[in-house]
Please model this.
Amino acid sequence: MKIRNIFLSICFFLFQLVLFAQDGITVTGIISDANGEPLPGASIVLKGTTTGTQTDFDGNYTLNSVDEDATLVVSYIGFTSQEIAVNGQASINVSLSEDAQALDEVVVIGYGEMKSKDLTSSITTIKAEELAATPTGSPMQALQGKVAGLQVVSNGSPGQGPTIRVRGIGSYDTGASGPLYVVDGMFFDDIDFLNTSDITSISVLKDASAAAIYGVRAANGVVLIETKSGAYNKKAEITYDGYSGFQVAQNVLKLANSEQFVT
Model:
């Protein structure tokens, strides 16, 4: 009987050890940036699971039932994520560094640096490949049929640029009552001087919220144009684009000769 009691006591003790091992440890710490400022709302997740938590206003976090050999994945918007091995530590402080690539994705509407997927306003972006697919004498003529609501009316005069209507006829007169052109940050009333092959992308701002920073000059819409430019340690490139064609008169009237004209 005595031996049986000892055996039961040993089993109960081992059972408690198993339960304690299953519960794991509690990990606490502070998540901060490179300057030591706390990051509220940072995410701490056990790698390979959906178990995790977030930091409070002071950057503190508490994560329960963590295996001693687990790995913490710490992430925050605009910062590089880090993976930290627990290794039985009960207190883990993490300092995150800024992610330069993520910072490049910040949308600054007023200066034309934007991504269409991040915006709720009416903006259409056309890339250089789409412009090159339509051989035209003017960059804006290449937008015909590619931007919803954009009217491109050509008057047929040689060398004359087309009339552009983004939101119909506006109240602010810019000479041709056309949109405001912003070429690499510079304002222009027309872009007849610009070669289509030199353009990287064209963004058309159609509603008031997208063009608000440009004031009254944006009353007829804004066309943002980014041109091609060189880069550091980049080899020089020479490209040639050319088109050829011919014209044939149709339904030409047969004119009278001299005898028929006298008669």
About this structure: Helices lie at 2-23, 100-103, 128-132, 258-262. The longest strand covers residues 25-33. Residues 2-101 form a domain with the Immunoglobulin-like fold (CATH 2.60.40.1120).
